[in-house]
Amino acid sequence: MTRYEQLADDIEAAVRRGVFGPGERILSVRRASEQHGVSIKTVLRAYALLESRSVIESRPQSGYFVRARVGAPQGRGAVGAQGPQDKDAMSAGKPRRASAPRQPVPANVDVSRLVLSTLRSIGAQDAVPLGSPYPDPALFPWRRINQYANAIARRHASWNLIDDLPPGNPELIRQIARRYAENGVSVDPEEIVITVGATEAINLSLQAVAKPGDTVAVESPTYYAMLHAIERLGMRAIEVSTHADTGIDLDALARVLARQKVAACMVMPNFQNPLGFRMPDAHKARLVALAEAHDLPVIENDVYQELYFGQTRPSTLKQFDTRGLVLHCASFSKSLSASYRIGWALPGRYRAQVEKLKFLNTLTTPSVPQVALADYLRHDGYDRHLRRVRRFYRQQARLMRAMIERFFPAGTRTSEPQGGYVLWVELPPRVDSMRLYQAALAQGITIGPGYMFSMRNEYHHYIRLNYSYPWNAQTEAALKTLGEMVAKMA
């Protein structure tokens, strides 16, 4: 099969699944060329083939549109499905490679108390939120989304709960699948399960593939929500060393898998929190191949997928998965609306278990936020919003790294984020991040101490900082104060 025939088949499959509905515009020739990594000539030949199949039609000076056809798909998430809205019309170099023990062993997890106390302190009045895990809400179009939500609430005096039982609102599911398709990723809407943020997606996915007492492999350092999920379900975590550029050490992971039984692996391949790296495609492919060799479920936390600093959206582990072992989790909380907490899972072969667990755990995800986000995605400029956010975060990352180099003592090193909004900072070894956290809090400054990102004291002299908030005199003064504290402790 030629490349243009394969592209045509992929687009036709997306149309048949309802990702693109009758009368809707598909990607422009130039955009399709960029997203699929093919020449414009290849795209034109693919579109011509689709026209000959009566799948799409060309409209002069407007683009290509899906033809209205008899027998359009009516499955979950397809165009014909009736959702509620259808009923009315390193500053001094990078941090050294994070090193878990040479012979990592499973350990019980208890980091939730530290994280909870840290998050509470971040909410203190007038505290500088350098330790916040959340992006600055001022960057989000929350007023516009609230307008949609208020309009929906006025239209519906009551809501039929049955409409949004798992897997979730059909139109939102379709919009999510379309978003993937527009970025060159083929996703079956039938696989998507809507959740209460990515946190629930991660918890449901882990619950679907492992049981209490099982061992789960995680990155080191790792995002503490991963450790929370393991802790909540009575499992044990085994930390695997993780490189600041390439991600989890695949050789170390292979040794762990050869030595003991591991029920699942949890990773953040794109813009990992706290390191900020983007795992190279070759490493992603090798990780999936390793998982397939051991029949190992991999839970992929891709919550920062839209916040890339490069020219193109990064690939996902899901794209390399041919056996349904990758449980892909994401949300809009980091890119569009943190308050609405809408996420989703693409659980592969475990979809039925995740849907059932969703029903048993929380029954449904709130309906109005689902429909409001679907309306925003359908009618407003999500890409324009994202371009602005990405540009801002990229500038902020450079600025914060420069300020740390200016204000912090020799021996301080920072990560080089490829996306997202957090910076991982290695301090001189004599500095204890919990002492620094307490001293900074007394000055009205919050930080994320390294203790939160591991079960051991591997990162006692590391901190995580948030650069999503606008730069101002208060932020600069806070960083200068932190630098002075670090210098004294060092």
List the defining traits of the structure above:
490 residues; Aspartate Aminotransferase, domain 1; Aspartate Aminotransferase, domain 2; 3 domains; four-stranded antiparallel beta sheet; globular; WH_DNA-bd_sf
Question: Can you describe this structure?
Answer:
The chain has 490 residues and is α/β, with parallel strands linked by helices. It folds into three domains: 3-66, Arc Repressor Mutant, subunit A; 112-138 and 384-489, Aspartate Aminotransferase, domain 1 (Alpha-Beta Complex); 141-380, Aspartate Aminotransferase, domain 2 (3-Layer(aba) Sandwich), CATH 3.40.640. It has helices at 3-16, 29-36, 40-52, 84-87, 112-122, 142-155, 170-182, 197-209, 224-232, 250-259, 281-294, 351-362, 367-379, 382-407, 433-442, 473-489; strands at 56-59, 63-66, 193-195, 215-220, 236-243, 247-248, 264-267, 298-301, 326-331, 343-346, 413-414, 422-426, 448-449, 462-466. The strands form three sheets. The chain has an eight-stranded mixed beta sheet with strand order 3-10-9-8-7-4-5-6, with helices on both faces. It has a four-stranded antiparallel beta sheet with strand order 11-12-14-13, with helices on one face. Strand 11 and strand 12 form a beta hairpin. Helix 2 packs across helix 3, helix 6 crosses helix 13 (367-379) and helix 7 (170-182) runs parallel beside helix 13 (367-379). Residues 74-104 are annotated as: Disordered.
